[in-house]
């Protein structure tokens, strides 16, 4: 594993681990990732999983991980939907353009879901596989009437089993274009998702593990965290030399990273 000067195991209170590209690819677990997570826990290092995916609830995400062999509880999952909901004042009336994960996070925050643009205090966007022109019309009118604009994440696209698909950022961008408004973004690389994940860890230094420099690494580094880039996702070895910011660690996979951090005790 390549590294610049960073912390060792005794220095980390917890590790925030990205999901797709670190723990699994689509519906296949990445070799050694499950055991690496358990090694961190045995070493007394807390783990929280963080994802920009706002379509699933924490329970649904935990179910997927358990189906891949991971031992995980829903409260160890932080999604951009929860981070977005945390930005909203409880009791607000929210127009949600998104799926169950986002709707459930907003209602769990104590907010009311509304469809009428004249009633909306906040417009919250995420990936919506049932997007219609009418939803964009209502979102546009709510924003032009002064509603706050929050996006779960600004991802332009994401890899699906059958190819690249448009991401939640496409819906956010459509409303920004229609209204001239800019969204407040909760997901990586912005701070809210990282801060919400860290709030579920013990106090102390945090390590972020991800596969994408521009989201996982850049966002965590901006907060002063150590970062680890693994090469099981979208970044390959040839791209490491040009990575900016430079990760604290670069490893072939999560298992190799944890072996190095734990000094062979994993």
The outline comes out as: globular
- The average pLDDT is 94
* Helix-and-strand structural type: alpha/beta
Strand order of the largest sheet: 1-16-15-14-2-5-6
Please mark out the parts with pLDDT under 50 across 5 or more consecutive residues, or reply none.
3-7
Number of helices: 9
Question: What is the element string, with H for helices and E for strands?
Answer: EEEEHEHEHEHEEHEEEHEHEHEEH
Query: Biggest sheet: strands, sense, closure?
Result: 7 strands, mixed
**What's the gyration radius in Å?**
19 Å
Structure description:
By secondary structure, the chain is α/β, with parallel strands linked by helices. It is built from nine helices and 16 strands. It has helices at residues 33-42, 58-67, 80-86, 100-108, 133-144, 168-179, 191-198, 213-222, 254-261; strands spanning 2-3, 14-18, 24-25, 28-29, 46-51, 77-79, 93-97, 112-113, 122-125, 148-151, 157-160, 163-166, 184-185, 206-210, 226-230, 249-251. Strands 1-16-15-14-2-5-6 form a seven-stranded mixed sheet. Strand 11 (157-160) and strand 12 (163-166) form a beta hairpin. The longest helix is centred in the middle third of the chain and has 12 residues, at 133-144. The chain starts with a strand and ends in a 5-residue tail after the last helix.
Chain-wise SSE layout:
Layout: E1 2-3, E2 14-18, E3 24-25, E4 28-29, H1 33-42, E5 46-51, H2 58-67, E6 77-79, H3 80-86, E7 93-97, H4 100-108, E8 112-113, E9 122-125, H5 133-144, E10 148-151, E11 157-160, E12 163-166, H6 168-179, E13 184-185, H7 191-198, E14 206-210, H8 213-222, E15 226-230, E16 249-251, H9 254-261
Parallel strand pairs: 2-5, 2-14, 5-6, 7-8, 7-9, 9-10, 10-13, 14-15, 15-16
Antiparallel strand pairs: 1-16, 3-4, 11-12
């Amino acid at each position: 594993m390549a590294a610049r000067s960073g912390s060792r195991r005794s220095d980390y209170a917890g590790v925030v681990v990205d999901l797709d590209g670190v723990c699994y690819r689509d519906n296949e677990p990445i070799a050694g990732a499950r055991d690496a997570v358990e090694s961190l826990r045995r070493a007394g290092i807390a783990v929280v999983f963080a994802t920009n995916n706002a379509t699933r609830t924490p329970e649904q995400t935990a179910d997927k991980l358990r189906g891949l062999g991971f031992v995980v509880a829903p409260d160890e999952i932080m999604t951009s939907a929860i981070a977005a909901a945390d930005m909203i004042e409880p009791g607000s009336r929210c127009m949600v353009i998104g799926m169950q994960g986002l709707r459930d996070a907003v209602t769990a925050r104590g907010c009311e879901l509304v469809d009428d643009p004249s009633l909306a205090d906040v417009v919250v966007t995420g990936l919506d596989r049932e997007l219609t022109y009418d939803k964009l019309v209502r979102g546009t009118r709510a924003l032009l009437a002064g509603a706050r604009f929050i996006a779960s994440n600004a991802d332009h696209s994401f890899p699906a089993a059958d190819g690249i698909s448009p991401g939640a950022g496409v819906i956010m961008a459509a409303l920004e274009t229609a209204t001239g408004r800019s969204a407040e973004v909760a997901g990586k690389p912005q701070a809210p998702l990282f801060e919400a994940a860290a709030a579920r860890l013990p106090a102390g230094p945090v390590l972020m593990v991800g596969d994408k420099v521009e989201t996982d690494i850049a966002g965590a580094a901006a907060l002063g965290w150590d970062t680890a880039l693994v090469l099981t996702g979208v970044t390959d070895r040839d791209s490491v030399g040009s990575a900016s910011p430079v990760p604290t660690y670069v490893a072939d996979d999560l298992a190799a990273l944890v072996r190095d951090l734990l000094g062979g005790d994993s």
